[in-house]
Amino acid sequence: MISGNSADILAYLKKIKPGMIVLVASFDDAATKMTDEIRQMFVEMGSTLISSVKHRDNWAFAGRVGIKIKSFFEQRAVNDKNTNVYDGWPEMVEVGGCFPRNSSV
Predict the structure, then answer these.
(1) Do 71 and 45 touch, CB atoms closer than 8 A?
(2) Distances, alpha carbon 27 to alpha carbons 31, 58, 63, 101, 103, in Å
(3) What is the residue range of 63's domain?
(4) In the prediction, which pLDDT does 105 show?
């Protein structure tokens, strides 16, 4: 679990080596701590939804540093007070399946 300021998150992400699998689950204030540089790092891991993650959205993601395709393991539930199902929180999101062995695919 990483909580803290953007500099801590960025420092952690920069330590991840090419080919390593990254698993992320977020809620509440993750979007407010993500700088453009952090979001770009997730794009480079295969994320296509990171630019749309907002405050209190639920976001689950599995990607790989250096992957050349978009990740098929990403879901987002939008925080909307009219549709939230858990007392002010959006529904749960899940990702699952087999992750590609080759990071250049």
Answers:
(1) yes
(2) 8, 5, 18, 28, 27
(3) 21-99
(4) 43
List Cα–Cα distances, 75 to 6, 15, 61, 81, 101, in angstroms.
Answer: 22, 25, 7, 19, 21
Residue 50 has a pLDDT of 93
Residue 7 covered by a domain: no
Eight-state DSSP code of residue 105? -
In 3-51 the beta strands, taken as DSSP E runs, fall at 21-26
Q: What is the pLDDT of residues 46-56, one digit of tens each?
A: 999 999 998 88
What is the 3-state secondary structure of 42-80? HHHCCCCCHHHCCCCCEEEEEEECCCCCCCCCEEEECCC
74, 29 in Cβ contact below 8 A?
no
Distance CA 26, CA 65 (A): 19
Collapsed DSSP state (helix, strand, coil) of residue 92: coil
Residue 4 lies in a domain: no
pTM: 0.82
CA distance linking residue 63 with residue 71, whole number of Å: 6
